[in-house]
Amino acid sequence: MPLEDDFGRDVTGIRISLTDRCNFDCVYCHNEGLGDTRGPMDPQDDEMSADEVIRILEVVSDLGVDSVKFTGGEPMLRDDLEEIIRRTPDEMEVSMTTNGTFLPGRAPDLVDAGLERVNVSQDALDKEHFAELTKSGAYDRVIEGVEAALSAGLAPVKLNMVVFEPTAGYVPQMVDHVARNEGLRLQLIEYMPEISGHPEWAIDIERVHGWLEEQAHRIERREMHGRRRYFVEAGAVDDVDSTVALENSGVNPTGTEQPEEGLVEVVDPVENAQFCANCHRVRVTHDGKFKGCLNRHDDHRSMGSMSRDEIRETFEQTVANRVPYYGEYLVKEDGEWVPNEEYIDVLDQSAAADD
Description:
The chain is α/β, with parallel strands linked by helices and 355 residues long.
């Protein structure tokens, strides 16, 4: 049975950052809530070893966690990624978030190792715009990576697009892109200024929902998070430039052979209590600390020497100290996000009790 926090949420998922290194320098990066701490490209001493990652997964698997998503930084900078996936407990679903540049050549081996799903970060379909957002010239490589993932059997590939002022204008083209290319889905992720900075970049995410409602021919509500799923027919979005046809999708965007629709979801946790009420995951930082919430910086809990007992105890403490809704933990005062003193007091009392 999974552990349940004080607010009735079973913890059934875990996100593990395998490194804080990345070959991109995206302008919105918050590095799993740690801030843009990207360092040298060479492996760092503070990164967990493969043995440590697997030990964590074996312990939490015994405590009811049945899915893991590997993240970074860029997780594919780990040469031992295939080994880690292969050694993950068989009963756990394995997925990964990547920028896609290393998928060509490695996607088949990742699937053979046990990878089941992949999210690829892609914020624009124009090389120049993509370079401005990621500070990289790897656009073609990302497209190749998506194709490699599809060819390796990882469909549907979910594209992650952060929606904020610099990218909002690209949303129609990206929606049309997933509608025209079979095997793709789109996840529009709300920009989080409270951990990324630049509050002037934030947009009203309801504008995005409203626009999608106008474009969609069908809307469903997903059980997880109560999230709406928008189904948009190919060619339904007006006034977009011709999109990219992926070689392995079997789709010609100018012909008649097209999928019926594309699936689009919006990830909108900011000031959204319902989103947090349906959160069933905890996180592990690249240097081996449990983290109860993406948006908190004060709840990192070290697993010590990472014995199985220490991992178990720290995981149980992390679950027990989850807050109900980060919007109650972080509040806005005079336009700035500051901690809610009510929860600071609770945290201080909890820390004293642990000591």
